[in-house]
C-alpha cells in the first residue's frame, strides 16, 4: 500500500457516522494516515445515501483514503473487535452523543488503559461536559448557538444558512488540528490524550471580535445580507450577464478603482476619502459602483480589474470551478477512479505540502465491510472466526 504523506505510518480508527467525525477522518487520511472506518453491519454509514442529485456521491468524497470494516458496537463481540483495532491504533475519532461509548465499555479510560499512546478526538454538539452535554446537537444547532445563524441572511428576513454543513466541517477541522497538536505532544511525553471538540465552540471560534464588541460596547451585529457593515466597497455587483465580486475597500485599491471607473474625484470625496467614511456611506458607494459595473459583461469587467490590480473575481458555479485554468494548473480538482461512474471529479487535498504531499491514494469503500477480511486478518482473527461473526450479524 502507498504510505506517502505527512501522517504515513499512523493508524486511525473512525467511529461514528455522518459528517463531523468522517470529515476529520478524511482530512487525516488525505495526509497519509491509514484510516479504518467502522460501520454498522447492513447499511453502514447513512452518509452513503446523502447528497444532492440522482447519484449520491458525497460518500465518495468524505470516505476517500479509508478502508471499511463492520462491527456491531451494541454487541459484546463487536465491542471486542473494536478493542482489538484500537489496541494497535494511534488515533480514534468518535462523534457519538456523550456517554454512548462508555455505555458500550469503549470509553476513553478503557481504551487508554490498553493503549496509553492513543489519541482520542471526541466530537459532539455541546462537548463532553456542562449542563447541555447530553443533548443531541447537530451542526445546524451548533451554528445557531455559536452565533453564526444570527448574522447570516437579509436583515428583514429570518436567519439563513450556508449551503454547506459548516458547523460540522468546522468541528472536524478543529478536531484535526487537535490531533496534530496531540501527536506533537506525544513525541515529548509518550502519552496520548483526549480531545474534546464541541461543535458550537468551533463555530464560536470563527466569529471574529463579536463577543469582545458586545462586552466592550454592547454592540450586537445584525444580519446584513451580502455586505459586511463598514467594509466598502466589497460586494457582489451586477454585470450585464451576471454578478462579479469586487473587494476594493483599502484606500490605495479604492483609488485605483475610482481611476478605472473614470471617476477619480470619488477618492477625494469626503464621503469616501477613507475607510471609516466609506463604511458610513456604504449604501451610496455600492450604488455608484453598481451603476458602473452594470454597463459591462463579466469578461470586460474582469479585464479592467486585472489590468488595474484590483482584487476581484467571478462568482463561480461548479461548472466554472471544473473548467478554470488556474484551478486545473494547481490540481485543486482531481478525477478519482470510481467503480460505477468510471471517475468522479472532486476537490483535492489541502494544504499543499512540499516534501510530504497529501493526495487521494484510495477511492471510497464501495460497500460496508469491504475490508473485513484484510483488516481483521491483520489482527490475527482467522477465516473461520470471521465466518462465524458474519453469520451471527456481528460484522
From TrEMBL:
A single Gene Ontology MF term assigned here is: CoA-transferase activity
Q: One Pfam match, by short name? A: CoA_transf_3
- Which keywords accompany this UniProt record? Transferase
SUPFAM superfamilies linked: CoA-transferase family III (CaiB/BaiF)
InterPro entries the record matches:
CoA-transferase_III_domain, CoA-Trfase_fam_III, CoA-Trfase_III_dom3_sf, CoA-Trfase_III_dom_1_sf
Record's PANTHER family? Answer: SUCCINATE--HYDROXYMETHYLGLUTARATE COA-TRANSFERASE (PTHR48207:SF3)
Name of the molecule in the record: Succinyl-CoA:(R)-citramalate CoA-transferase
Q: What organism is the protein native to?
A: Hyphomonas johnsonii MHS-2
Amino acid at each position: 500500500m502507498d504510505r506517502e504523506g505527512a501522517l504515513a505510518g499512523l493508524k486511525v480508527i473512525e467511529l461514528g457516522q455522518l459528517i463531523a467525525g468522517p470529515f476529520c477522518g478524511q482530512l487525516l487520511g488525505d495526509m497519509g494516515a491509514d484510516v479504518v472506518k467502522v460501520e454498522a453491519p447492513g447499511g453502514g454509514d447513512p452518509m452513503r445515501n446523502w447528497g444532492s442529485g440522482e447519484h449520491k456521491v458525497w460518500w465518495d468524497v468524505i470516505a476517500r483514503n479509508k478502508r471499511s470494516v463492520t462491527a456491531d458496537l451494541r454487541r459484546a463481540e463487536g465491542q471486542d473487535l473494536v478493542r482489538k483495532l484500537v489496541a494497535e491504533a494511534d488515533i480514534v475519532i468518535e462523534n457519538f452523543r456523550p456517554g454512548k461509548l462508555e455505555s458500550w465499555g469503549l470509553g476513553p479510560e478503557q481504551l487508554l488503559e490498553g493503549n496509553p499512546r492513543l489519541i482520542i478526538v471526541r466530537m459532539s454538539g455541546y462537548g463532553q461536559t456542562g449542563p447541555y452535554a447530553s443533548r443531541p446537537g447537530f451542526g445546524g444547532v451548533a451554528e445557531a448557538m455559536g452565533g453564526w445563524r444570527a448574522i447570516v441572511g437579509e436583515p428583514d428576513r429570518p436567519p439563513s444558512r450556508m449551503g454547506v454543513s459548516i458547523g460540522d466541517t468546522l468541528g472536524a477541522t478543529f478536531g484535526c488540528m487537535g490531533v496534530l497538536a496531540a501527536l506533537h505532544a506525544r513525541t515529548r511525553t509518550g502519552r496520548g490524550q483526549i480531545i474534546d471538540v464541541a461543535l458550537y465552540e468551533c463555530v464560536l471560534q470563527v466569529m471574529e471580535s463579536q463577543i469582545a464588541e458586545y462586552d466592550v460596547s454592547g454592540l450586537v451585529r445584525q444580519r446584513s445580507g451580502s455586505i459586511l457593515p463598514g467594509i466598502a466597497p466589497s460586494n457582489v455587483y451586477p454585470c450585464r450577464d451576471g454578478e462579479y465580486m469586487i473587494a476594493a475597500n483599502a484606500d490605495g485599491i479604492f483609488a485605483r478603482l475610482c481611476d478605472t471607473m473614470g471617476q477619480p474625484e470619488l477618492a477625494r470625496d469626503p464621503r469616501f476619502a477613507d475607510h471609516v467614511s466609506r463604511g458610513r456611506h456604504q449604501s451610496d458607494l455600492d450604488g455608484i459602483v453598481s451603476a458602473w459595473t452594470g454597463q459591462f459583461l463579466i469578461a470586460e469587467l474582469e479585464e479592467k480589474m486585472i489590468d488595474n490590480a484590483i482584487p476581484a473575481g467571478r462568482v463561480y458555479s461548479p461548472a466554472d470551478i471544473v473548467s478554470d485554468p488556474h484551478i486545473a494548473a494547481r490540481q485543486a480538482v482531481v478525477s478519482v477512479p470510481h467503480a460505477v461512474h468510471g471517475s468522479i471529479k472532486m476537490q483535492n487535498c489541502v494544504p499543499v505540502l512540499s516534501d510530504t504531499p497529501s493526495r487521494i491514494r484510495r477511492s471510497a469503500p464501495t460497500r460496508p465491510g469491504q475490508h473485513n477480511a484484510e483488516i481483521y486478518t491483520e489482527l490475527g482473527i482467522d477465516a473461520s472466526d470471521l465466518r462465524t461473526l458474519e453469520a451471527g450479524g456481528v460484522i
